[in-house]
Amino acid sequence: MNVESLESPYKELVKAAVEVKDKAYCPYSNFHVGAAVLTSSNQIFTGVNVENASYGLCVCAERVAITNAVSQGHRELKAMAVCCDIKDSFKAPCGACRQVVAEFNLDMDYYMVKPDYTSKKIKFAELLPMAFTPASLKEERV
Ligand SMILES: O=c1ccn([C@H]2C[C@H](O)[C@@H](CO)O2)c(=O)[nH]1
Ligand SMILES: [Zn+2]
């Protein structure tokens, strides 16, 4: 999908993901990722991947964007757009980020975005079948 064919605020969401990507702190991988999350109040919060010399501490852009939104009081997240450096294919998030998205909204619209601003939208639940969510903890136990 071409970015100009998208309606607001999804157009702005996709653009935000592409543009914030340049702020990634990724001296070890040189793999830039930008994420933008859309709240139910149509506000956009962004994030980038932030790496560390202690490699295991690297944090993905998706989790930084969600953490930004939540820490500003926004827990209802309805869509997300993520862009990385890969030129010719749409990339889906890592397993850790899938679980963090599922904590807030398994039904969200997820836009995978290429650096040329083209995007592909999927329903997030497709990426995490049989998810373990907050509802799981409310089910009857032995
Ligand atoms: O979906 C992804 C996959 C990877 N990364 C980051 C983590 C690390 O900094 C770099 C290479 O894995 O890209 C993300 O931010 N999001
Ligand atoms: Zn991740």
UniProtKB/TrEMBL annotation:
Cofactor(s) required, per the database record: Zn(2+)
EC numbers: 3.5.4.5
Gene Ontology BP annotations: nucleobase-containing small molecule metabolic process; pyrimidine-containing compound metabolic process
InterPro entries cross-referenced by the UniProt entry: APOBEC/CMP_deaminase_Zn-bd, CMP_dCMP_dom, Cyt/Deoxycyt_deaminase, Cyt_deam_tetra, Cytidine_deaminase-like
Function: This enzyme scavenges exogenous and endogenous cytidine and 2'-deoxycytidine for UMP synthesis.
Family: Belongs to the cytidine and deoxycytidylate deaminase family.
One Pfam family hit: dCMP_cyt_deam_1
Keywords carried by this UniProt record: Hydrolase, Metal-binding, Zinc
Highest taxon above the source species: Eukaryota
Binding site for substrate: 49-55
Residues annotated as binding Zn(2+): 60, 94, 97
Chain ranges of the CMP/dCMP-type deaminase domain: 8-135
Gene Ontology CC: cytosol
Entry annotated with the keyword 4Fe-4S: no
Keyword Transcription: no
Reactions catalysed, as given in the entry: cytidine + H2O + H(+) = uridine + NH4(+); 2'-deoxycytidine + H2O + H(+) = 2'-deoxyuridine + NH4(+)
Molecular function terms from GO: cytidine deaminase activity; identical protein binding; zinc ion binding
Protein name according to UniProt: Cytidine deaminase
Entry annotation: catalytic residues: 62 (proton donor)
